[in-house]
Amino acid sequence: MDRRNFIKAGALGAVMTVVSPISFSAYGNPTRRKGKSGRLNLSFDPYELQLRHAFNLAKSQRTTTPDVQVKIEYDGLTGYGEASMPPYLGESIASATAFLSKLDLSQFTDPFAIEEIHDYMDSVAPDNCAAKASVDIALHDLLGKIMGQPWYKIWGLDPRKTPDTSFTVSYDADPAEMRAKIDDAAPYKVIKVKMGLNQDKELVEAIRRCSDSPICVDANQGWTDKEQALEMCHWLNEHGCLFVEQPLPKEMYDETAWLRERSPLPIIADEFLQRLPDVRRAAQAYDGINIKLMKSTGMHEAHKMAVLAKALGMKVMIGCMTETSCGISAAAQLSPMADWADLDGNLLIANDRFDGVRIVDGKIMLNDRPGIGVKILK
């Protein structure tokens, strides 16, 4: 039995039958609906995420992130998704809404046809990974509500095994703003440091004056010399660093493999990696991968990537963009599979529209709401 039929069979057992007038409400309680649409109905709206602090990266700075909020309705239930599109992804509100406008999900009467729907989306247009992820997340939210279960349970994952999430800090030339960012990170047990600027060591030293929490580093392809990268890895190892994410440009594959052989710290792929076919090649130059739903086209392929990476002996990190709790809660369903997590995107914005996964004493805490575990804030 393939995975789709296995999941579908489990759903049928959970709710008696998908086409029955008996279904599960948003909290898993049986409710009776009067009418059934029988087809998937997709709708979407642009939404700009407002960052609480400026995000300073190796190659850019921003205070907002373009986003599209998505809903899929079926038989009286609603699944929520989103597409978050930082500029480096090459997507925008215009490209996402143009792609979503081309989709006709009403042709699908079976919401469990995940593979077919992904094949259909790929046939409509290539790329558009974040836009496809928004549909995938909404579809998973919907399916979980049909089954009355959160996805971590459907996947058979143990919620007690969720890791701590890191909290991201980037450099700021304003000392007061820099201190505010470090203060924001105080409740978290791991601090993620955005590097690739001229002030890399200065930033770590500023953090160390305030905190002895472990750090992890994301260079965002900002180091361009392998010898310099190796020197930084040794220096970071002496300053309580756990790993280094994408130290060199993704095109510097051989140099990254050279660095991996010599680095005292694990080297993790980010920009190098997008979808499932990239995992095997990453295994030859990196110690692990950072899986992000907005690059992997959503939960369906992200789960496959995590399974394959584990089979190849790689470390797995579940990451994010700046997102609402919708996207973060979707990614968090995978977090019991992860060695590390960087799921703070909702904590970095000022206009979250959802209540979902919580962080308690730095640890990701999954809830029992079906689907991706969110409810929309009124």
If you had to describe this structure to a student in words, what would you say it looks like?
By secondary structure, the protein is an alpha/beta fold. Helix content is 34%, strand content 23%. It is built from 13 helices and 17 strands. α8 runs parallel beside α9.
Strand content: 15-25%
Helix and strand sequence: HEEEEEHHHHEHEHEHEHEHEHHEHEEEEE
The total of beta strands comes to 17
Helix content: 25-40%
Average the pLDDT over all residues and give the rounded result.
Answer: 89
Q: Provide the low-confidence segments as ranges.
A: 1-35
Widest sheet, order of strands: 6-7-8-9-10-11-12-13
What is the tally of helical segments? Answer: 13
Assembly type = single chain
Distance between the termini: 42 Å
Distinctive features:
single chain; 378 residues; alpha/beta; eight-stranded parallel sheet; 13 helices; 17 strands; disordered N terminus
